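Exercise 7.
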Amino acid sequence: MPKKAKQLTDLQVRRLKHGFVKGKARNQELIKNPKGTPCTVLHAVGGVGGLYLQVTPTGARSWILKFRTKAGKNREMGLGPYPEVPLKEARDTARFFKGQVREGLDPVMIRKETAEFERRQQQKQIAFREVFNTFLTKKKAEIEPRGAKQLENTFKRYVLPLIGDRIVGQIKRQDILHILTQPQSDKQGAPLWECKNTTADQLRGWLDQVFNHAKFQGVYSGDNPAEWKGNLAEALPKPSKVHNKAHFPALPFERAPEFITELRKREGTAARALELAVLCAARSQDVRGARWDEVDYGKCCWNIPAERMKTGEPHTVPLSDAAITLLKDAPRLHSELIFPGPRKGGELSDMALLNVVRRMHDAELRNEGSGWVDPADGRRIVPHGFRSTFKDWCIEETDTPDFLSEMALAHKVGNEVRQAYQRSDLFAKRLKLMRLWAKFLGYPETGAKVVPMSARA
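Solution. The predicted structure, written as tokens, is:
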């Protein structure tokens, strides 16, 4: 039977050092450290079997309790630092845990389970906003910047004002339904799911992913409140039943030269940005973010980097003579942006270009004209619609191969196999196409040779 350790007093415990004292080996143990480093010493203090004062080579001291469970497992657990935890408290705590052992319990497992329970309870107090921020950080590494920005803006507009500060673990299906059916003031109070179904359906998909992320993080339990099948599908009509994807209202290509003539009469940065967008059949955001160092006059091109493209891939835009003239005439306003906004260092807003179209439309109506509208539905045109105008012109007036006009619009062409083998960006042919487009719009030729794309052109 092993000898019991001598029961030490407070004073004796206070005097215990790291050194291994000869003649008192039965009250001491050595913990083997990596080769070449000093050993940690355990001093038995008595009073409770298995209670030790641990002293490291640096002099740090703490309590250790060793015991064997009824299942035969050797356990070791810390009881806190010394002298913050005094001798009497350490012995009382050790006796409590030894009592649990006699009852057939395992204090180490109980402590772990308690800590895990407390951790989960604390995590359940996390607000939805915090979970979304971690999800957004993860997504930014997976999707292109423009998509990540759209995701962030959508949640800021429709979700965070309603549940951003709510505890994520308390959010239920009714909260998600409230988000998806919130009335829209710009649509006479119609529910979001009905009047903006594309946005609402995409939002539901993102919410589904956010709650899956929350479940993975351990801060949400139970069924996903944003799941569609067997959940929201029972409360909302199918997207296909309410979805009515409206195309951007576009001007018939026959009226495009007339529009450009009126546009060139207008002054201002926004008007010139819109003019370049039409000339290049470019997206509004690409033009608004255009920088001087992206333009190469010698090669007649504008190189848009991948991080600014919707596709996440770099795109080279051929510049017609008219586009180059426009850029060379644009004032340098001590900004890296070609079309800087009114705020220092900022881009033009999308509304700036739209307002140019609105003012032109109103002026046309005042002159008893028909206005700048899409004849298909009578809606006023928008800047993005000129990409459709350009596409119609390619089809109707030039017989341009579809893949070439799609490349001009910076769309992905064909399946993955075709994309892998179609490595050329057909820049020379696209440059000829853009020069033809400028000529059609009424811009004078400046000496560059324009090669027709077809006999019809």
